[in-house]
Structures are given as C-alpha cells and as structure tokens.
Amino acid sequence: MFKTTRLLAAAALFSASAAGIADSGTLAAPMYLRGGFNGWGLDHPLASKGNGVYEAEILVSPGYHGFKIGSKDWSAEWVIDPSAKVTIAAGTSYRMQARPGPEDYLFVKKTSTWRFTIDVSDPAAPLVRAVQTGTPPASTADPHRGHAAGSASEYRIIDGTSATVRYSTPDAAAALRSYTQSTTMALRDPGPQSTTYREAADRPTVRSGSLAFDALFALALDEMKRNAVAQITDGNYNGAAAIDCDCFETGEKWHYVWTRDLSYAADLGLAMLDPERVRNSLDFKLSGYRHGIARAPQVAGSADGRQIVQDTGSGGSWPVSTDRVAWALGAEAALNNLPAAQRAPFAARALEALVNTLENDRIAAFDPASGLYMGEQSFLDWRDQSYAAWIVTDLASLASSKALSTNVLHYKALTLAASLAHDSGDLARSAKYAGWADALKRSINERLWLEDAGMYSSLTAPHFDGAPLHKFDWLGQALAILTGVADGERARRILASYPHGPMGAPVIYPQQPGMPVYHNRAIWPFVTAYGLKAASLHANVSVADAAYDTLMRGAALNLSNMENLEWISGQPLLLDEQHPGLIGPVINSKRQLWSVGGYLGMVIGNVFGVSVSGSGIKVRPFITAKLRRETFGAASLIALDNLTVRGKRIKVRITLPDATTKTGYYPLKTITVNGAAAAQSIGWEQLPDNATIDVALGSLQQGDQQVRRVVAAPYAEGPDVFGPREPSIAQGTRAATLRIDANGNGAGTVYNVYRDGKLIAAGVGTGDWRDHAAPAAACYAIEAQFSVSGNRGHHSVPHCTGTAIEVAAMVDGVAQPQVKDWGKPGERLRFGAIRIAQAGEYGVQVRYHNGANQINLGISGGVKWLVLKDASGRIAAQGVVQLPHARIDKTGAPPVMSTPLHTRLTPGLYALEMSDFYNMSYLQSNSTFSAAGGAEGPSNKFDVIGARLLRLK
After folding, report:
1. Which helix (H) or strand (E) element contains residue 745?
2. What is the pLDDT of residue 19?
3. Would the CA dihedral through 921, 922, 925, 927 be positive or negative?
4. Distance, CA of 701 to CA of 125 (rounded, Å)
5. How many Cβ atoms are within 10 Å of 706's Cβ, its own excluded?
6. CA 322, CA 330: separation in Å to the nearest integer?
7. By CB count within 10 A, which of 5, 99, 535, 559 is most buried?
8. Could you tell me the CA-to-CA distances from 324 to 261, 278, 357, 528 in Å, in that order?
9. How far, in Å, CA of 49 to CA of 45, rounded?
10. Strands, DSSP E only, in 185-310?
11. Phi, then psi, of 190 in degrees rounded to 5
C-alpha cells in the first residue's frame, strides 16, 4: 500500500452483497489475496473449498507484509479493522469488514508457504485465518557447473557477515555471451539464488576484462528488454484488463506506465537505447479532456487540453502533486535520440502538451509571492515518510509547500518549452517561457539555498509559515546541479555536503523517526544514478566512487536492479524483529525501470562517457582511480560495442592508464573517430554510420575528494542521523506567549521559533516563550533541533494569532451549516456577507471535507476557483484553491481547510464565490479509473462547511 501513485482505489462503505458476498454465503464475484508479498496483484485468487470457504496459498519472503482481500478492480476490499492496521497471528481467525481501511499485516521470519483461508459462510461476518504450511527446500545444484570462465566477488553484509556473488559464462570468447549469476545473500522475494541471461545482437555489449562488469551490463539490458511490453495492466484501470501499448512497464511488480518513473528512466539511459518505445510511453502519459466537459473560463491552453498526466496520488493527485513536469526530461531525451522522421511530429506534440501543462500549473500551483511552484516533492510521495507527521490530517498544507525537486523540474520544463517554441518559430512564446525559467531559477536560489548547510532545502514549510526547512533530498540536489540551477561553486558545496552512509547516499536526510524503510532510511538506485551524473560533471571523485559502488553492489547481490535498499546495510529487506513496524523497504520490485535506466546510464554515460544532444554526441568518460583499479584490474582497454544512436553504429574503446593506489580521476586526453582526431563533441554530420571512437585518458588528477560520511547502527534511531519529532504549540496559547510542547523529544533537544516564516529565536527550551515584539497578528511555528548533531525536524502546525472571520455557505440566499456533495462542473457557491473591520493581510480558505478517496490515492482532489469581491464588485482576490482528500475517523468527517488565497484588504463589505476549475478526473485517460472520478464521470465534489478569513498581518 505504499506505492501511493499506483495502488488501491478506495470505495464507499459496503453491505455484504456490495462487497461480493452472496446471501447464500458464497462469493458473488472473484476476490483475491493482495499484498506486499505479491505486488498487490491478482496472482492469488481465492479458490472455493466448499461451504463458503475459500483459500489462497502463497510463498512469502521474510518481512512485514501489508495485505487486503480485494476484488479485481478494488470496488470491494476487506480489512480486519477499518480504523487501524492489525498484525495477524498465525492460526487465529479474525473477523473482516467489507470497507476500505489501513491494510493488515503478516510478519514472516523465514521464507515459507502460507495458506490464507477466508470463510464467508456467514455473509455478515467473513473470517480470515493464515497458517504456515511449509518451507521450500534449498537447491543443491551448482548453476555454474560446466562453464569455462568464472569470477567471484565477496561483499560485507551486516553484523560481520558476508555474501558471495559468482558469475560464469560457457564461452568467454563468444561474440555474444550467456551469463549465469548467483548470490548467497537472501533475496527479497522467494525464488532461485541464481539467474541466467544473454547478450543479444540488437543490444550493446561491454568487454572490460571484468566478467562481473560485463555481466551486470548485460543483466540491465536484459531487464530493459523484459520491461518492454506490448500490453500494460493496472487493477485501477480498464477493469484490470490489458491495454495495448508498446511501452515500458515500471517493474516486475508494477505493470503500468507511470509518468515520473518513465521520465526519469528515459532521461537516465533508456531513451538512447529504445527511443521509439520511450516516445510511445511518453505519448501514453498525455491526455486531453473528456468529451462533453464544459471547460471553466479560467482554465488555460488549447481547446482539447492535451497535457501531461499527473498519476493518482496524494490528496487526489494534481495539483497537490505537480511533478508531472518530469515528463520534460524524458521528452528531451527522446527527441535527442529519435530518428529524424519521428522527431518533428513528437516535438509538436511535446510543445502542445508542455504549453497546456505549464499554463495551467502557473494558474493552479504557482505562488507569485515566493516565485516558486507549490506541490509535493517529486517521487517522495508517501507523506509521513518525508513530511511532518501532522500533514496527513492537513493535505492542503502539503499542497501549499514548495519542493526543490518539483521546482527544478518546472525549470527544466520551461527551458524545453522555450527551446521547442523557438524551433517552431514562435519567438514570443519562447521568450515568455525563457523569462519564466530565469525568474524561477533566481527564486530557487534566493528562497531555498541554505548557506549554513551548503545545500538547498528540499521543501518549505506550508502556508502561514513558509520557511525553508533543514531537510535535504539527493534527487533535488542532483537535479539542481544537472540543470544548471546551481552554479559551479554551489554544485561543489552540495556534493561535498550531502551525507553518505557506508553503502551510499540516502534519498533523504536526516531520517524520520518512527518510520519504516521506504523513502525514509533508503537508497534508491535511480537517485544514486543522478548523484553520479552530478558528481561526474564536477569531478567529485569520492561521491562518484560511492555511487559506482552502490549501483554495482545492488545489482550484483540482488540479481536484479532493485527498486530500493536500506541505506545503512544496503539490504533489500532489513528484518527488525524488535520493531516489526519499522521493517523495510516495505515494498520492493525487481527490474524497476528507473533503476535499470540508471544502471545503463552509469555504464554508457559515465564510464564510457557517451551522451546525446540534438546536435551530436559528446564523449566524456569519468573513470576514477578506484574504478580502474578495483573493477577493471589488469585490463589495458575497455570497449562498448554495437551502440546504435540515430541509426549510427558506434564502438567506444578506452585505453586505460596503469592502475594506481592513489585517488583521483583520469581526464580525457585525446579522441579519434575511425583514426582521425576529433573533438569531445562530435556533430551528427561528422559521425560516420559505423564509427569507432578511440579514447586516451590523461594523467591522474586529484579532482574534488570531499564527501560527508555518516555512520549509524542499522536498527538505532539516534540523533546522529535522525531528525527530532516536530514539536507542537499547546492549546490555549496566548497571543504573544507560546507554550512549546516537546512532543516526545528528550534531553539534548532545543527549539527554534519562527514568526511568519522568519527565525526570531534559536535554542530555547520547552514551556512558555514570550515574543516581546509580537505584532497585532502573526503566525508562529516551532522547530526542534538536536544539540549534538544539529539535525532539525519539521516545523509544528502554525499557530496564528490574528482574528478569524467565519462565513457560512449560502443556498438560495439561506445560510447552510453544510452543503453536501457540492462541486459539479458549472456549479457556483456563494457565501455569506463578509465585513472586514481591520485593514491587513488575510488568508481566505474554504472549510470542507472531501471523502471521495483515501488520502494517498485517486484523482478526485477538489480544485476550484475562488473569487473575493468588494462592495463595488472589484476583485480583491481570486485564484485556485485546493481541497484534497481528507481522512474520515470513527466519529464521521472532521472538516479541514483548503489552501488559502492571500490578499490585503481594507475595511468594508466583501462577497465570496466559488466555481469550477478542473482536476485529473477531467482527462480522458482517467475515464476507465475504477474509483471516484473514473468510469462514472469526473469527480470534483466535496462537502462545504463554510469559509474563513484569517488575519495574518
């Protein structure tokens, strides 16, 4: 349940019949055992055993596995307790309820077979029971037997243990080899401890003198081929039936195309190797509006609305999440690699999609006051893994925060749109987007750069605070370097400052307390690959060596390019028996597409140094002394053969200097193409159809060897690598005096006070703290900080001292305590008269509840247009407000607040009105989605309780 952009659709409460149980005590429709142990898929249907009893048997690996009983399209799902997760005990029967809720859990210590029994003989009280039925026998066969050549590598695992990886091939001299790879490390998922794969005539090969290096490149290419499919599927789309698409699926457990996964994978390496399939996949992630949709006047772009799809996710998708613009990375890579005849039509589609996306993002997600775009961090989309714990009850606050990664992606999308518009002859549009990009780059550097940390803040606190947090993520830092948002000096500081554990760089830092491994406490290979690209660009040898080690080690030990790894041990699963709720990674897929792209990009783009642009190719290998010594050993030459780019076949040969025990890297010395001297950048017209590029490397250079190393015990949550919990401001706090509650933080923690996003007091204790310069109205937030490490936590919920004016919703001129299910396209809603007595800055919000789906799912987040007018009819404020999905507790639907409109008001009477905008459910691509906003039509509805005008200053 943690792939929040790709998992279950929620549903309303069900009766027994609606849940798929007939009155006779049998299943009226097929139901499935679905969980982390099978990728939440349909591989384990419940088979009838008679008398209302159904069973599914599954081989389960060690771990703490979430699961549910669900129908094919998730229109029905069963959990034990809809209000909380339950860890089941073997052999115990539990009553299930036919309603959505948190998944239940099964804890497994050793790979074993489990039988799940479902008893629906009493339709009103279905029961579930799980028992262990056996363990698989260990294989004694040697998969390498009879092979002529082989090698072995040993890796330290954890607590002094080690694992051995062996490689072999029947014929090392063969033009196309077959490889067998085995590991003694326990794999994440049940299966053999070895795998066999082959090189192919239509794919590149590497010969490096290292059987392991050659094999792992072939493994990544084999996994790319296995991810290349003719049909894709997802339980939430098309009734779970296959969809024809010559596309890349996302991984072994994810059989759909997801915008960000695809785009990062394409940018890292896949677009060079299969640009047509990348183009097809990118096209699949474009959509126009559904037929018959009446477009609101404020919506921008072309009439058909073809734009980039934001996948299902937090709060109901866009614009809570706005990283759909990652599509630009994949599109640019595809355009650079497509054959000439295919580039122009795709460039036209790309420009149209980017224009429609960028224009509407500018309306719905851009904050003119900060010059930044709002929205969730890119790919870090499991909220409590990387946000404050309180954010799950206030997703509007998540939506209004600004993330480094998402803003850098917007910068990239703007620069690509400017370039495509220029090429199309639309110089005015090109200048417009180039201007927006320049301004955005300035704002990122002014608002998010933290001089004391030498890095960019990953995200700001939400509205009514807005301070950049001392939270950091490796993807955002790397993208800032690679796009040029960070200048050379800042890039060097980032590379030297970002913390690395013994197995490489975690995706976030510091880690979050009380959270299992997934984004938290994790290495993601695709993020490491972007870090490697950034390190190579600025010749940081230590960071590059760490990335090379991470990527090769992960693929070697796991027999696959995994989705993620625990960051201290490098394991695909850290089994913490004392704290089962912290076990993880909680979900992990083999041949994850962006991990595959990252590995291929490491070999082709970093080791051999080949990159592609619209004008030609560039050759800039980054081979460190450590890589040359430990990976290539006695070899004097390494070669990449049969790389085909734009129809030209390329072979790259690099002559290696003698190995040394020193550290550094070997800069480029000379390049020849078919024997003739060439520059580092080679234009397409200078590149023969069959080109042999010979590279000679120069003398060892020291480069930059700064890297920040941190060490921690895998199971410990200490202040050295974790951040503190966010504190709170106690209820009953007076206007100028804050009562700071530690919220579980112990000794060695101090607190920093922010007023309106500015630090006004540092290092204070808990209890009462008085602001002696308190203005008439302000918003305060508290940040906890560990004294010993300096690591900081997220900010508290803001506490605002200004007057709040509550306004009722009106229907036919009559005030209503609640307007249910409001928001159909074309509907307008007025609120009661507003009298402003004091001039000042105000935040205008709608009080609402949106129960269309769970907080981590769907496409039905509320997105509306709010207008505030004065007595003369002049517009005092207008813009999009977001009303994301909200949690429902046992007592009903607690109201929450929308994102605010900020405006300065003078005393007088005002009128407030809300009308339609659009969300992702308005797109044709979501017309088969199984939950709200899908097959039954767009959903942009919620319950309105009223509105609030909060004085801020």
Report:
1. none
2. 63
3. positive
4. 71
5. 14
6. 16
7. 535
8. 10, 16, 9, 21
9. 12
10. 194-198, 205-207, 228-232, 243-248, 286-287, 307-308
11. -60, 145
Beta bridge partners of 795: 783
Q: How far apart are CA 920 and CA 316, in angstroms?
A: 8
Alpha helices (runs of H) in 313-403, residue ranges in sequence order? 327-337, 340-364, 383-386, 395-400
Q: Which residues pair with 169 in a beta bridge?
A: 149
Amino acid in the structure at residue 907: P
Number of Cβ within a 10 Å radius of residue 136: 11
| DSSP per-residue codes, 381-399 | --HHHHS-GGGGG-HHHHH
- Side-chain-side CA neighbours of residue 682 (13 Å): 26
Kind and range of the H or E run holding 683: strand 681-683
Tokens for 950, please give them.
């909060």
User: Which one-letter amino acid corresponds to residue 700?
Assistant: L
Strand 668-673 versus strand 676-678 pairing type: antiparallel
Domains in the chain, please, with CATH? 32-134 (2.60.40.3620), 248-292+300-448 (1.50.10.10), 709-800 (2.60.40.10), 804-951 (2.60.120.260)
Separation of alpha carbons 258 and 226, rounded Å: 17
Q: Is there a contact between 86 and 80 (Cβ–Cβ < 8 Å)?
A: yes
- Residue 83: the pLDDT is 83
Paired sense of beta strands 668-673 and 616-619, if any: unpaired
Round to the nearest angstrom and report the end-to-end CA distance of the chain. Answer: 42
CB 769 within 8 A of CB 782: no
Strand residues in 620-658 grouped as ranges (E): 623-624, 637-645, 648-655
The pLDDT of residue 894 is 75
C-beta separation of 5 from 858 below 8 A = no
Tell me which residue has tokens 């605070």.
465
Task: Report angle CA 416, 230, 263 to the nearest 5 degrees.
Answer: 20
Cα(512)–Cα(497) distance, integer angstroms:
19
CA distances from 909 to 181, 310, 405, 832, 835 (A): 75, 39, 41, 11, 5
Question: Residue 881 CA to chain centroid, in angstroms?
Answer: 24
Q: What angle do CA 783, 785, 788 make, to 5 degrees?
A: 175
Q: Please give the single-letter amino acid code of residue 263.
A: S
Residues across the chain: 953
Instruction: State the DSSP string of 843-854.
Output: EEEEEEE--SS-
Q: Which SS3 state, helix, strand or coil, does residue 341 take?
A: helix
What pLDDT is attached to residue 728?
97
Shortest CA distance to 805 belongs to which of 826, 833, 775?
833
Residues 6 or more apart whose Cβ sits within 8 Å of residue 345: none
Say if residues 117 and 128 touch (Cβ distance below 8 Å). yes
Low-confidence ranges of the chain (pLDDT < 50): 1-16, 18
What string of H, E and C letters represents the secondary structure of 537-550?
Answer: HCCEHHHHHHHHHH
- DSSP letters for 288-328: -BPTT----TT--S-SS--EEPPPS-GGGSTTS--GGGGHH
Burial class (CB in 10 A: 0-12, 13-18, 19+), 696: middle
What's the CA gap between 474 and 497, in Å, rounded? 11
- The DSSP-derived string for 508-565 is EESBPTT--SSSTTEE-HHHHHHHHHHHHHTTBHHHHHHHHHHHHHHHHHHTS--S-E
What are 119-129's pLDDT values in tens digits?
999 998 899 99
**Residue 395 backbone phi and psi in degrees, to 5:** -70, -15
Q: Name the phi and psi angles at 138, rounded to 5.
A: -75, 140
Which tokens is 550 given? 């991470």
Q: Report in angstroms the alpha-carbon separations of 325 from 263, 264, 704, 862.
A: 9, 11, 32, 20
Distance CA 691, CA 678 (A): 12
